[in-house]
């Protein structure tokens, strides 16, 4: 019977396993099969896959006598062929889809070729139409020491895909020769695809994968700071490649100030849709980005010069509290606004808001050392996300003072609610435009154009920001 120590150990291991099972990545990038298809198509073009097909050594390949074919018969055929080669070739639209077990992606590369051979028996070139399909699988490879990555394996001719036919009718004299050439090509062509084209396909896939990793790692500029992503682990599911990403925030000198990795923080993934890609950013990462754009600051204004109407309203409100203090307010009265800590972004299904802690001081004149009072204000603003091209934009609207506290006073003590409306108006007129000015440049999401799309769109879940191509979801909408 196991002792209590063993039981405790087993419980600890089980608890640790459960914790690991519930950890969520801070950022998830989903690339659907069509994105992989387009990127692999571009990589194949860059590596000259079509040129490889046009240079397939058909003549030398058919000289290798397949089993079951009489050597003398092959020699007779080959003596009547001057040359045999591909005259034109093209790669048709690739197909990428999840395998039957949903653990791999199946890549099919259709090929269309015209081959010709010359024979002394006729003056014209005999043309053959060759159709075939290379097939490979994309799998996850976990190295002994390196990270898990995607690799391309098992490249070969797709079974049953090879079709060879005559493009034009030939004379009865050449017809037996053409039939024999086609029979010789049936075993020869798959071998050529395996030896000549498959290495190019694998090289193109590796380059495509390296390019995707580079796209993922492009820093996101947040003013002097920046946000960087890196792959924690890839996965294949729902006809898509899912990259679970880690994130880190760096200051202007490149020093990491905050890490984001797998954690128990919730991350609600959007329902599967037809978006070619989606970038799902957890709330704490978005919050850090907003905080980087809106650092703590101190604003000092001569209220009577800048906002005279609000200065008069403030004086009237203070007169209700203390007439003598109101009379001491001069034309150089100063309002100092200090944002405490950094703003906190709160997401929900249908909206988002930014909460801030603000300290407001009122000095009767520019020469005064002590403020009339100091207020602590808990304020919130509606946060509106939207996209312009490949930039994510954020604008703050409708600032509200949720709670207001009297922290210090140099006049008689009063209920701070008396000043709630006027201080809110001052914040709307001073703080809100200042913060929106800092947010106006937006956040460049270069990943959008790097993946082949012109513009982005965005939406919200209860705990994440979701970026997709604009064609799939115009505007910045919530799922509600």
UniProtKB/TrEMBL annotation:
Entry's Gene Ontology BP terms: innate immune response in mucosa; negative regulation of toll-like receptor 4 signaling pathway
Keyword Signal set for record: yes
Gene Ontology cellular-component annotations: extracellular exosome
Cited InterPro entries: Bactericidal_perm-incr_a/b_dom (IPR017943), Bpifb1 (IPR021193), Lipid-bd_serum_glycop_N (IPR017942)
Molecular function terms, GO-annotated: lipid binding
Keyword Signal: yes
Keywords of this entry: Signal
Domain (Lipid-binding serum glycoprotein N-terminal) ranges: 36-254
Signal peptide segment: 1-21
Protein name: BPI fold containing family B member 1
Organism from which the protein derives: Microcebus murinus
């Amino acid at each position: 019977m196991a002792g209590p120590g063993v039981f405790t150990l087993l419980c600890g291991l089980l608890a640790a396993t459960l914790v690991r099972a519930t950890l969520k990545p801070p950022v998830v990038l989903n690339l659907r099969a069509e994105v992989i298809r387009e990127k692999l198509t571009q990589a194949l073009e860059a590596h000259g896959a079509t040129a490889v097909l046009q240079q397939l050594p058909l003549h030398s390949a058919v000289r290798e006598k397949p089993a079951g074919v009489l050597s003398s018969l092959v020699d007779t055929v080959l003596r009547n062929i001057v040359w045999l080669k591909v005259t034109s070739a093209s790669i048709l639209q690739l197909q990428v889809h999840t395998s039957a077990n949903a653990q791999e992606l199946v890549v099919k590369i259709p090929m269309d070729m015209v081959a010709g051979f010359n024979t002394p028996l006729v003056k014209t070139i005999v043309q053959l139409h060759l159709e075939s399909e290379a097939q490979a699988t994309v799998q996850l490879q976990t190295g002994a020491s390196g990270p898990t990555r995607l690799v391309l394996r098992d490249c070969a001719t797709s079974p049953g895909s090879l079709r060879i036919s005559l493009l034009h009718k030939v004379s009865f004299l050449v017809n037996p020769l053409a039939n024999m050439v086609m029979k010789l090509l049936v075993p020869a062509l798959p071998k050529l695809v395996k030896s000549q084209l498959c290495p190019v396909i694998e090289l193109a896939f590796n380059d495509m994968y390296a390019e995707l990793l580079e796209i993922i790692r492009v820093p996101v500029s947040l003013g002097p700071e920046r946000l960087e992503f890196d792959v924690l682990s890839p996965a294949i599911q729902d006809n898509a490649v899912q990259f679970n990403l880690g994130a880190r925030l760096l200051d202007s000198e490149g020093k990491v100030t905050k890490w984001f990795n797998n954690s128990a923080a919730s991350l609600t993934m959007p329902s599967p849709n037809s978006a070619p890609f989606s970038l799902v950013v957890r709330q704490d990462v978005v919050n850090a980005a907003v905080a980087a754009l809106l650092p703590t600051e101190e604003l000092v204004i001569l209220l009577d010069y800048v906002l005279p109407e609000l200065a008069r309203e403030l004086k009237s409100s203070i007169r209700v509290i203390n007439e003598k203090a109101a009379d001491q307010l001069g034309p150089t009265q100063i309002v100092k606004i200090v944002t405490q800590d950094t703003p906190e972004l709160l997401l929900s299904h249908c909206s988002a808001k930014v909460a801030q802690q603000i300290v407001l001081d009122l000095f009767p004149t520019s020469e005064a050392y002590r403020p009339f009072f100091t207020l602590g204000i808990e304020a919130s603003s509606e946060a509106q996300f939207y996209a312009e091209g490949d930039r994510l934009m954020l604008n703050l609207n409708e600032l509200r003072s949720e709670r207001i506290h009297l922290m210090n006073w140099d006049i008689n003590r009063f209920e701070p609610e008396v000043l709630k409306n006027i201080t809110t108006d001052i914040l709307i007129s001073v703080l809100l435009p200042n913060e929106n000015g800092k947010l106006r440049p937006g956040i460049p999401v270069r990943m959008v154009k790097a993946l082949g799309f012109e513009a982005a769109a965005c939406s919200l879940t209860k705990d994440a920001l979701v970026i997709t191509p604009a064609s799939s979801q115009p505007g910045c909408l919530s799922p509600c």
